[in-house]
Write a structure and sequence with these properties.
The chain is mainly β. The chain is built from two helices and eleven strands. Strands 1, 2, 3, 4, 5, 6, 7, 8, 9, 10 and 11 form an eleven-stranded antiparallel beta sheet that branches.
């Protein structure tokens, strides 16, 4: 992946985030999301070829943190693993098991201790040709 692809990820991140596993789903409410969450997985899966997957945390040493305050304000920070960091702030909506962060809606669930976010309308440049393919983004976050 080249630097422009990483910058595209940072730009997409400025518009959203998250995913997980564990001991059974829990209803999403503001109260049970308050705290600091660290991404343990940020996985893109190509819609056209589901065997084509990239976890940008593992592949590039990227990191992401989400902080949810009791009043619903959020702060997120993304480091692409190449020295570039971006931050975003906004408000969190927890309605109908959907989290809206920076205007982007994610199907969300709490599963055990993990917050899992899915966005089926993501894009990622899997073949590093400068053109992003349609993808699913799955972000798994663990509470600190």
């Amino acid at each position: 992946m080249n630097l422009s692809s990483i910058r595209s990820i940072v730009a997409v991140f400025g518009a959203a985030t998250l995913a997980g596993c564990g001991g059974g789903p829990t209803e999403i409410t503001l109260e049970n999301l308050v705290g600091v969450w660290d991404a343990t997985e940020y996985l893109y899966t190509n819609h056209a070829n589901t065997s084509q997957r990239v976890d940008i945390l593992a592949a590039f040493g990227a990191s992401m943190t989400l902080t949810v305050a009791a009043d619903g304000t959020t702060t997120s920070t993304f480091n692409d693993g190449q020295g570039n960091t971006s931050s975003d702030s906004g408000r969190l909506d927890a309605v109908d098991q959907t989290l809206t962060l920076a205007g982007v809606a994610y199907a969300a669930r709490l599963d055990g201790g993990d917050l899992v976010l899915l966005n089926n309308a993501a894009a990622y440049d899997f073949d590093d040709n400068g053109s992003a393919e349609s993808a699913t983004a799955r972000i798994t976050l663990e509470r600190r």
